[in-house]
Amino acid sequence: MVIRLTGIGVGLLLVLALLGASIALGKQAIPLSEVYRSFVHFDGSREHLIVQTVRIPRALIAMAVGACLSMAGAIMQAVTRNGLAGPELFGVNQGAAFLIVIQLYLVGSLSGSQSIAYAFIGAGAAGALVYMMGTIGSSGLTPLKLILAGSTINLLLGALTQGILVFDEQSLDTMRFWLAGSLTGRSSAVLEQAAPFMIAGVVIALTMGRQINLLSLGEETAQGLGLRNGWVKGLALVAVILLAGSSVALAGPIGFVGLAVPHVTRYLVGQDYRWVLPYAAIFGAILLLLADIAARFVIPSQEISAGVITALLGAPFLIYLAQRRE
Fold first, then answer.
1. Residue ranges making up the domain that contains 152
2. Is residue 2 part of a domain?
3. Which residues belong to the signal peptide in this entry (predicted)?
């Protein structure tokens, strides 16, 4: 336990270091001393405004989104007992994106609070639909049925979203950067609106460590040990919707974070989800902070989306996992 607690402490220190790097680095590098002065002696200068209104919200959003997506992925892989599961499996990402695109098509624009509200409604509706489809049949909810239902809904919503964007150029221009998984242009006000949902999802997830441990042993084994499988799966679905829905609302459907980080976490700390979940949150925050920093320098003339970086890192990892499971 001492080693694991030490690891959490070291991880948190690394997160803080990367937060500082994310705030200081960019097209215009800002010394850490100037970052500090923007807190204690804000003078309204250009550098101070960049730090307070652009860099700090962006770094905090990257940290929060990375942590939430990783925890959501860890829960899904445990519940489905499928190492290829991620937040995309329940159609949560696509459900959020689909409803936002629908509203943009009908209304033309959305405020930050509206996008969060529509993202949660879409994510919740998609997650609930997948859950209900997975319970159809005499065998009840099984990991295989959950995966099939989630994949079907995910593909359907993705196709509908792309269809709307093809026929509506204005929505395409508004959404294409967000759909690539971008952390730019997000204000602290939007983070404050999403924070209660993120915190609720994190709290639920951290309190489910023991139940997830039992569920990962198998349906019959967990039930024999007195676990109410249906309630645990339902609560896990709520946690995933809160974690992934808030992340999609803030940064768009960033992929592969929820897939890759839980594998790395289990490799380092074992299968005990009382430790896997907090470690996944830390590693997820580290990964997305690194991806966002890298996104600023990959192409010197312009900045790309952090979601592109995670895709470049995650695609080979996904291929490796698929080959290993053959």
1. 56-324
2. no
3. none
- For 27, phi and psi rounded to 5 degrees? -60, -35
Residue 1 resides in a domain: no
Q: 108 in the Ramachandran plot: left (φ > 0), alpha (ψ -120 to 50) or beta?
A: left
Q: Is residue 49 part of a domain?
A: no
300 belongs to a structural domain: yes
Interatomic CA distance for residues 28 and 319, integer angstroms: 37
Rounded CA-CA distance 207/78 in Å is: 15
The reported pLDDT for the residue numbered 174 is 62
Flag the least confident range among 152-161, 175-184, 257-266: 175-184
The Cα–Cα gap between 193 and 302 comes to 30
Q: Is 302 helix (H, G, I), strand (E, B) or coil?
A: coil
37 Cβ contact list (under 8 Å, min separation 6): 43, 48
Where helices occur in 25-86 by DSSP H, the ranges are: 32-40, 46-50, 56-80
Residue-wise pLDDT for 128-145, tens only, equals: 888 788 777 766 666 677
How many domains, the chain?
Answer: 1
Q: What is residue 111's DSSP assignment?
A: -
Question: What sign does the dihedral 155-158-162-164 (CA atoms) show?
Answer: positive
* Residues 71/202, Cβ–Cβ less than 8 Å: yes
Higher pLDDT, 313 or 186: 313
**By C-alpha distance, which of 34, 45, 92 is closest to 236?**
92
